[in-house]
Amino acid sequence: TANMPTSNTSGGFTGANGLPGDALLSFAGTTYDACRFEFDVVAYDTVLTFNYVFGSDEYTEYVNAGFNDAFGFFISGPGIVGQPNIALIPGGVTPVSIDNVNCASAASAYYVCNEPSGGALCNSANCAQVTTTEYDGFTTLLTAQASVMACDTYHLVLVVADVGDGILDSGVLIANLLAGTASVASVSAVIPGQPN
Q1: CB of 79 within 8 A of CB of 147?
Q2: What is the pTM of this model?
Q3: CA count, 13 A, side-chain hemisphere, 182
Q4: Which residues partner with 112 through β-bridges?
Q5: CA 117 – CA 175 distance, rounded (Å)
Q6: What is the pLDDT of residue 152?
Q7: Residue 73 · residue 25 · CB < 8 Å
Q8: Which of 105, 120, 172, 191 is in the most buried spot, having the most CB atoms within 10 Å?
Q9: What are the Cα distances from residue 145, in Å, to 38, 115, 159?
Q10: Average pLDDT by consecutive 10-residue portion of the chain (196 residues)?
Q11: What is the DSSP string of the chain?
């Protein structure tokens, strides 16, 4: 959201846009106000990675209440079967959503509470440090990773959406998309008029 406050000043920051959801996030429920970003990347290595943080104002009042806002990072291309979601809780196959990552879930180690009172699920000890974002909670820095074939092109789709209703916003911050680095070991021919 472009006008998001820089501290948690509201119990429910929202921008209900009335937009459709995205079927890629159907694992979380019926989606609304989806935001989708698609692009292609050429892999220069055998591993593609990126870091992300998922945050939501659905925390913690609406955890396990049918408003399971979610994020997915889907990949397709050579050697990939289907279009799997690689935005998963570390060490498993569970996708990232407010029901799956929160202070009362099995993945609580990956959750940061941003409500001074602790919210509906957490206590104030879990929320001792308030940060400079409006989201009531967010994940720690997580990494999505996929095995790929060097020099091939892969199609990537990032999707975040409201689930269960179109209010109380969620979002994702992404960084460090790495598909390896290209390097030149040697020049096989001298180009006339250019330095070697």
Answers
A1: yes
A2: 0.81
A3: 5
A4: 138
A5: 30
A6: 94
A7: no
A8: 172
A9: 17, 30, 16
A10: 54 67 87 89 91 88 84 95 95 90 90 75 65 82 94 93 83 83 47 50
A11: -TT--SS---S--------B--GGGGGGSSEEEEEEEEEEEE-SSSEEEEEEEEEESSTTTTTTTT---EEEEEEESTT--S--B--B-TTSSPBPBTTTSSTTSTTGGGEEE--TT-TTTS-TTTT----SSS-SEEE--EEEEEE--TT-EEEEEEEEEEESSS-S-EEEEEEEEE---------SSPPTTS--
Interatomic CA distance for residues 148 and 9, integer angstroms = 43
Smallest CA-to-CA distance from 161 within 54, 42, 82, 8 is with 54
The token duo for 180 is 């390896």
The backbone torsions φ and ψ at residue 50, rounded to the nearest 5 degrees and listed phi first, read -155, 155
- Give the amino acid at 186: S
Amino acid at 23: A
